[in-house]
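Pasting two entries for a bug report.
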Amino acid sequence: MARRSTDWFAAPLSLVYIAGTSREAEAAEQALTAEGVDYALSLEEYRNESMLGAIFGSVYKGLFFYVPRVYHRPVCEILEAAGLNDTVALREEERN
């Protein structure tokens, strides 16, 4: 199990992690691959929602990690156990 294209998945995907650096991306890929998790990647822009980000309007590129929605919580736990604590929570509309 490993990195897949988004088209490979039949189930709806949810965002679990945004890697802002190559080091974070490598750590996330290693953790997910070691646990046998299928995931999709997408290079996307995101805005820093911190106080400085709000003032300066910084936009960054990051590697977005997606997994089937039903595996969202277990995958967050895998990433957090690997020291990647800034996982993305499910949005309200995704929880049903």
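Entry 2 (this is the one that rendered wrong in the viewer):
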Amino acid sequence: MAAARSVNAESGREEKGPEGSCPESVTPGATIPRVKLLDTLVDTFLQKLVAAGRRPSGIPEEDVRSALMPYFLQQRDALQRRVHRQEAENRQLAEAVRAGRGRVQELQREGKARQQAWQALHREQKELVGVLGEPE
């Protein structure tokens, strides 16, 4: 989530507002209990809702759900569209594979027919050489 920024008129530098900062500073490498981290996230989120003009119901679960549900629905729809595109691509690839397998089988049949034709020709050639090569 983006932090609120303001420009200090005296120095001309950007400063992060209260929305971007955590209520407690955490030193790098320190372990934060998950429950405390979740509480901090929910509190920060509720502060952002109030700052944005949305009035929470007083029940954190409902407030978070009402704010996050549109986002999750949007993500679900985007994922469904992506899955449908991937399924269509997979169908096209499967059809190409089936066509390729059919072509391989056709080429195998042609190769086998040519081999049989060559073997028949070779047998006839041996018979002809045998007939012509015999001294009488």
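Dev reply: Rendering is fixed now. As a check, the viewer should reflect this: Residues 1-11, 13-23 have pLDDT under 50 and may be disordered.
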